[in-house]
Amino acid sequence: MDQRCCRFCHRQFEPSRFHPEQPACSDPPCQQQRRTQSRNLKLAVDTEYRQICRDSARKWRANNPGYWKRYRDAKPDSAQRNRTRQRQRDLRQRVAALANNNSALDLKSSVGSSLVVGSCRRRSCQQQLGCGASLCLAKPYPKTAPPRGILQTTSLW
User: Fold this and answer.
1) Same domain? 100 vs 110
2) Cβ neighbours of residue 114 closer than 8 Å, sequence gap 6 or more
3) Considering 5, 74, 87, 125, which has the largest number of Cβ atoms within 10 A of its Cβ?
4) pLDDT value at 119 more than 80
5) Which 8-state DSSP code applies to residue 120?
6) Domain match, 4 and 59 both
């Protein structure tokens, strides 16, 4: 049989004689990627399959009502890491919304905090802007001194 190129790892492999149109080699990572891609395609195309998967998850949650509470109680480190990451995701989402809608800032809620663009030092933001809470979004610069004449932090209020 002729050799084929794996769709995922791009190595040559000999397809199965029982499945000559085999698109991926038999390595476990390639097979996992093939199954994932196939499932995602089916979810995108087949509405009935998507509904069955959704119902299956709902059914499992109904049969295991206290699972996540027990999980968080058993693994407090994991729960704390998840809380931290969720706060970061929420913050990123709020900043993206502000960046996309900067003309409609609610100035009443922004009193006492500052939004600074880039990865500056938090203490520096607080000293320069005199605020209690700051979010740094400024353009990052190398560990060496920043170029002269470039504004490190910018207040949006």
Assistant:
1) no
2) 125, 129, 131, 133, 134, 135, 155, 156, 157
3) 125
4) no
5) -
6) yes
